[in-house]
Design goal:
Beta-Lactamase, Heat Shock Protein 90, 3 domains, 59% helix
Length: 422
């Protein structure tokens, strides 16, 4: 064989061997990248969700994911941002680091949620705050979205071989983002459900405690009425009976004395009547049922232990339990002002309807107190329980030296009128 031919054959064999080796290396590299991509997807699809359901903190799982992406694609940096309350927060990064939160409008969230995996040019237009120095980094941004709602972003960066970054990462990032969206959305729904259950349980406990207090208050009120009847009205009636028998005995023997006792008896009857009226007023004021809140509160202000005035818009009639709750809360607030506002204090009661609610305020210009430090007394607890029983709420605002304000609100329907007040 000629020497030239031998050299040619050897050269061809060398090229073929080199091509075979390159093909093997390239194939191995592709298989390695494919395997790594599959591993990242499997982690997001299976391990991530299962560990999250077992209580592993999401921050730890997101950090594992960013570390896996860095190892898989030889990245310089991988970040995972979560979107909540119109803000993007860096949840995990490899290598670790801190970035300031990014405000993101609803329109920007919609654009990002519907975008494909994109690069620096897209980020410069829509989310320039993602581009820390230098601003011309080679990166890919993958939105994490569910049903058109942006849940977060995956951001990866690599300076080496930037022309191949999108080819090597986009498919994996898209799939990982899709699986992450399902897991994050489920975790948020679970958290919201858990919070709702806790709130319902707390409300149930508060309702049970409130009902217990209402029953105890009703029992105490019945005992007070019994005591007032025994010590007040009953004693008046016993005295009337004794005096009537004495008059009967003296009528024939001492008519002048009998006439004097009869005159006193008239005064005793009037006093007993007033005692019974006062007792009945404490149970349920007749003026409230006959004339409504405005007239009943006007009378309460006149009887208050401190100077008090009433401001009332044109308010309609409402069920007895609603009117009674507002009336007795105002009465309780006036009594508290009389106790704690100090000498020279004035009180003002205001009642109005707005936005489907019956509202009231009791304001005094007295000593005031520190709301944060003050414990809930029996008066405030009674008011909360009364309003809570009809679906209302109450708030107390006060500042030392600047008086106090008690504000309450009860939801009512338009035109809702007590049946006995039509």
């Amino acid at each position: 064989m000629q020497p030239g031919l031998v050299v040619l054959v050897a050269l061809i064999a060398t090229i073929a061997a080199a091509a075979t080796i390159y093909s093997f290396i390239a194939g191995a590299s592709r298989r390695r990248h494919a395997g790594a991509s599959l591993s990242a997807i499997d982690f997001a699809r299976g391990s991530f969700a299962s560990q999250l359901s077992r209580g592993v903190p999401m921050a730890e799982l997101l950090l594992q994911l960013t570390q896996g992406l860095c190892d898989t694609f030889k990245l310089d940096r991988a970040e995972l941002w979560l979107c909540e309350n119109d803000q993007l927060d860096l949840a995990a990064a490899e290598p670790p680091g801190e970035r300031p939160a990014i405000r993101i409008t609803a329109a920007e969230q919609s654009i990002a949620a519907n975008a494909q995996v994109s690069g620096s040019a897209w980020a410069k237009v829509w989310l320039p705050d993602l581009l820390a120095d230098p601003p011309d980094r080679n990166l890919r941004v993958a939105p994490i979205a569910q049903s058109g709602n942006l849940l977060g972003l995956i951001v990866v960066e690599r300076a080496r071989r930037p022309d191949r970054l999108s080819t090597e990462t986009d498919v994996t990032l898209e799939e990982v983002a899709r699986e992450l969206a399902v897991a994050i959305n489920k975790a948020r729904l679970d958290a919201a459900l858990h919070a709702s259950l806790e709130q319902l349980q707390r409300q149930a406990r508060e309702l049970q405690a409130s009902r217990g207090r209402l029953v105890a208050a009703a029992d105490a009120e019945r005992r007070r009425i019994e005591r007032d009847l025994h010590d007040g009205a009953q004693q008046h009636l016993v005295a009337l009976a004794v005096r009537a028998r004495l008059i009967e005995q003296l009528e024939g023997r001492e008519p002048t004395r009998a006439h004097e006792l009869l005159h006193k008896l008239q005064g005793d009857v009037s006093a007993a009547l007033e005692e019974l009226r006062a007792l009945a007023h404490g149970i349920y004021p007749p003026l409230l049922s006959s004339a409504g809140l405005t007239d009943a509160l006007s009378a309460a202000c006149r009887r208050a232990a401190l100077p008090a005035s009433l401001e009332s818009d044109e308010i309609g009639r409402h069920p007895p339990e609603v009117e009674a709750a507002v009336y007795f809360c105002c009465l309780e607030a006036l009594q508290n002002s009389a106790k704690y506002a100090g000498e020279g204090a004035l009180a003002r009661v205001r009642v109005w309807e707005r936005g489907g609610a019956l509202n009231f305020e009791v304001i005094d210009d007295g000593a005031g107190f520190d709301v944060e430090r003050a414990a809930n007394g029996a008066g405030l607890t009674n008011m909360r329980d009364r309003l809570g029983a009809v679906g209302g709420t109450i708030e107390v605002a006060s500042t030392p030296g600047r008086g106090s304000t008690v504000h309450g609100s009860v939801p009512v329907s338009n035109g809702q009128v007590a049946s006995d007040a039509k």
